[in-house]
Protein: MEKHLA domain protein
Organism: Maioricimonas rarisocia
Amino acid sequence: MTETPVWAAADWIARTQLILDSYARWTGRELQSRVGDPAEQSRRLFEADFVVVAHGTEADPILCYGNRKALELWEMDLAAFLQTPSRKTAEPVHRDERREMLERTARDGYFDDYQGVRISSTGRRFLIRKAIVWNLVDADGQPAGQAASFADWQPLEANRGLS
């Protein structure tokens, strides 16, 4: 018996549509081409060669979406990723900067050209560049979290910092 891939699950497809619809709403552009049915769009976003992550609206937001590239970068399996508070994707020293960026996004709808340092589950640090962060909004216009996408990142050597 073959296990259904995560991107083919109904709730994952719905979350993918929320991410894609919200991105288009705020930016006026598509995150990826919207060809095919929602399941095909879900597969394509999960397998994309750029990172896509999202978190919910909890008081301490939990990650609710990560595509394959995000799972590789943060060095986690999906089960662990989906239990991670999104603040833990950044080192404590960088969390105030991250919080300010998320507050600006909440106020303005989206923020593009974000740059910041993140940390994987094994402690590997990396610099992300040219990230876009946007609010997730459901069909009724209610807040549903925030998402981010980027294709530009660079590993940072321990004790070397930003270069």
Q: What stands out?
A: The CA atoms of residues 54 and 147 lie 4 Å apart. Residues 159-163 have pLDDT under 50 and may be disordered. Strands lie at 51-55, 63-66, 110-119, 125-137, 143-150, 152-156. The chain is about 30% helix and 30% strand.
